[in-house]
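Colleagues,

For the teaching module next term, I've prepared a clean inverse folding example: a structure given as tokens, and then the sequence designed for it. I'd like students to try predicting residues themselves before seeing the answer, so please don't circulate the second half yet.
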């Protein structure tokens, strides 16, 4: 090493060019490596992010979610270009300096995965997205049946039919409800309508519905990726022009026979759930039972998902290993876990096909096959890496599933289990030790309780965001229902079907029926308990993002630093806690309006509806978005409302302001001068028809012209905030409203500072 002479005060380090190789590798031997911030990030990533694959999967999903969140193609392109530029710049800098490898890899791969996710979902939308029909269609149609789903509890069949639009000859794929009987008793269901049948029918077909209110279910987006251009109901008897070629499809025939056989073996109402577990057909589940399962947090047991696929695959794997082990010649020459994994994989694929191969079931099957592959290779069966690979595979095939509750809840539950089991305290708690069997059972029971609580906490933000409600007692109900389903009901169904070959399945079917009845009794009991269901107003994207950030931080990092993920979750909880119900809820058609009444001295607000609708869908949407339960009140019957045949007027009083709201009840002609005078006295005017320019309320009018651009509205008078459906749709293909710049101040101006009913 060469040491140069220096002047006093001059500091010179070792000669890097001719010096020691060990010193040359240290990060502080050159000026470009003196960044303390990068060094801190390098150390943090090296210690806390030991497995980088899960973070890459999260980045890929974030790119997909960003495409849905950003409104305009220019922003999608900008995001892709920015991420690619960041990756390229990181690559160039990395080659020049060669230091901070973990940081360099993170800044290279994470933006690249975000860009890849955005490109993938954009491309899929362009390839499979189906534009909706422009307007409602009514008339006679001829079409080919593509799929048939029996919904016996609703007394109907659901058909997917390929037909053509009569005016322009455009090919359409539509979803139709075929009632078993019309109101006059005339049957409209032929004896056989199967896949491939050519039918003639009369129906009213509507474009796929956008969210009724901000934060509601977006069927238009689902239909866009499913290839559906419309949906409707068949109104008159169907004529079968050509029967299905070759009769009913083999799988459909097997599914129907199994459904009939299960109904013969299991009593109602448990038979509907048993059929759903065997064939995936949930049409036999009564509405009361389905609602009780939802309110008790057990609805996930009704949809074929990871729980059911895992139970079937696990049973086949266990029985295969035990059965093959009794054959010494095979056991000594073949690795039994590999052979058992292959048999279990075939069983899982067969069960997926039997239950209709719905997207959630296929996702679960893919994840289960990856776990079987890990077992065959001698790897850890369930780890963050396996879960990340499974999630990436699902997103690669169905990227649109990222924004759906099924994908989010499935992977969130498994992520909570894996993260909890990987914690050092939990490993120590479950570690082997010398103790009695009773104490070991107590520890495992405590771990089961803790796991159920962790799953419930992981799923609660997702349920609140998508459904505006969550079951408070769901963890306790699932503590009983999940083991009963996994270890009794599902194995019992499989073994009973096998035993029925020898007519020995009677006792097993009795056990299955008793277990399902026990789950139903538990669901009904939990659902009626005080506070069993928590309803909140629309959560909003900000609070949901905080919960997601905190959840990923808690689950994917290691060490004590992971506890910092509690902070975003607490912030999201505070945002959620401070939310209050909106004062006005206006559906996109303007016909259905909800008014939230806050009266001093009353324990909880009440929901007033402009129309006494018979639609449970409309009423449930209004209640969920308002975060209110109980009976709704017909607005004209309210003592504070002043109504005639054409309009209703009501005054909403807040702490710092009040508003006069004028609501149209009919479409009859009203003298323009009288209408203009009524509008002048109102702050907000709501109508399901076009209103003349002479109607000028003090704040805004939500007539048909405005609502066709904005969609449904949610109005918070105390904060002067108006949310609309259009804000969450942007320029995506499934949205038929306003697609230009999303600043809607020209339609809904800011709230006047001195708005008062006395003006």
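(Answer key — instructors only)
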């Amino acid at each position: 090493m060469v040491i140069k002479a220096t002047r006093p005060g001059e500091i010179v380090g070792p000669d890097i060019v001719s010096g020691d190789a060990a010193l040359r590798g240290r990060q502080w031997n050159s000026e470009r490596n003196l960044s303390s911030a990068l060094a801190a990030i390098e150390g943090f990533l090296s210690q806390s992010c030991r497995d980088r694959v899960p973070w890459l999967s999260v980045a890929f999903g974030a790119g997909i979610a960003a495409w849905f969140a950003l409104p305009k193609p220019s922003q999608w392109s900008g995001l892709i270009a920015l991420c690619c530029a960041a990756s390229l710049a990181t690559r160039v800098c990395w080659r020049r300096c060669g230091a901070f490898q973990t940081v360099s890899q993170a800044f290279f791969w994470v933006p690249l995965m975000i860009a890849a996710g955005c490109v993938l979902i954009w491309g899929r939308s362009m390839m499979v997205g189906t534009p909706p029909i422009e307007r409602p269609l009514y008339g006679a149609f001829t079409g080919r049946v593509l799929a048939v789903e029996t919904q016996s509890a609703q007394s109907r069949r659901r058909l997917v039919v390929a037909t053509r639009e009569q005016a322009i000859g455009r090919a359409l794929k539509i979803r139709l409800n075929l009632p078993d009987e019309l109101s006059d008793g005339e049957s409209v269901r032929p004896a056989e309508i199967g896949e491939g049948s050519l039918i003639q029918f009369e129906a009213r077909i509507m474009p796929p519905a956008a969210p009724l209110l901000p934060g509601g279910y977006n069927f238009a987006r689902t239909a866009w990726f499913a290839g559906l251009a419309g949906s409707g109901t068949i109104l008159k008897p169907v004529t079968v022009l050509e029967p299905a070629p070759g009769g009913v499809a083999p799988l459909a025939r097997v599914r129907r026979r199994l459904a009939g056989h299960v109904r013969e073996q299991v009593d109602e109402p448990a038979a509907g759930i048993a059929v759903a577990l065997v064939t995936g057909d949930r049409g036999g589940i009564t509405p009361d039972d389905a609602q009780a399962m939802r309110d008790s947090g057990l609805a996930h047991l009704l949809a074929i998902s990871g729980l059911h696929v895992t139970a079937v695959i696990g049973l086949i794997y266990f029985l295969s290993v035990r059965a093959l082990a009794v054959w010494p010649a095979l056991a000594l020459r073949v690795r039994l876990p590999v052979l058992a994994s292959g048999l279990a994989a075939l069983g899982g694929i067969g069960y997926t096909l039997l239950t209709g191969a719905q997207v959630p079931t296929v996702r679960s099957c893919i994840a289960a096959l990856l776990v079987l592959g890990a077992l065959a290779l001698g790897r850890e069966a369930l780890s963050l890496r396996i879960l990340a690979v499974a999630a990436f595979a699902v997103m690669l095939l169905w990227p649109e599933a990222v924004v759906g509750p099924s994908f989010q809840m499935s992977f969130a539950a498994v992520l909570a289990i894996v993260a909890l089991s990987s914690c050092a305290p939990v490993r120590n708690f479950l570690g082997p030790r010398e103790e009695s069997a009773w104490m070991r059972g107590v520890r495992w029971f405590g771990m089961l309780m803790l796991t159920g609580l962790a799953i419930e906490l992981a799923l609660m933000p997702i349920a609140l965001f998508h459904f505006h409600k969550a079951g408070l007692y769901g963890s306790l109900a699932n503590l009983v229902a999940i083991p009963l389903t996994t270890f009794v009901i599902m194995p019992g169904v499989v073994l009973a079907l096998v035993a029925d070959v020898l007519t020995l399945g009677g006792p097993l079917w009795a056990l299955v029926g008793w277990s399902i009845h026990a789950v139903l009794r538990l669901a009904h009991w939990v659902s009626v308990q005080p506070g069993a269901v928590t309803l909140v107003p629309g959560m909003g994207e900000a609070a949901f993002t905080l919960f997601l950030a905190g959840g990923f931080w808690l689950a994917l990092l290691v060490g004590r630093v992971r506890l910092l993920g509690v902070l975003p979750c607490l912030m999201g909880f505070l945002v959620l806690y401070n939310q209050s119900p909106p004062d006005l809820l206006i559906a996109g058609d303007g016909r259905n309006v909800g008014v939230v009444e806050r009266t001093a001295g009353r324990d909880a607000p009440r929901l007033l509806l402009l129309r006494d609708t018979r639609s449970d869908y409309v009423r449930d949407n209004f209640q969920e978005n308002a975060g209110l339960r109980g009976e709704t009140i017909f607005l004209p019957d309210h003592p504070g409302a002043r109504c005639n045949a054409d309009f209703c007027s009501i005054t909403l009083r807040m702490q710092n302001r009040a508003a006069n709201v004028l609501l149209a009840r009919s479409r009859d002609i009203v003298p323009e001068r009288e209408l203009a005078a009524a509008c002048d006295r109102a702050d907000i005017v709501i109508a399901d028809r076009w209103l003349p320019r002479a109607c000028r309320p003090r704040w805004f009018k939500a007539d048909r012209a405005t609502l066709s651009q904005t969609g449904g509205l949610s109005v918070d008078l105390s904060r002067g905030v108006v949310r609309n459906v259009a804000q969450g749709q942007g320029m995506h293909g499934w949205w038929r409203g306003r697609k230009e710049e999303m600043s809607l101040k020209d339609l809904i101006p800011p709230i006047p500072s001195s708005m008062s009913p006395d003006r």
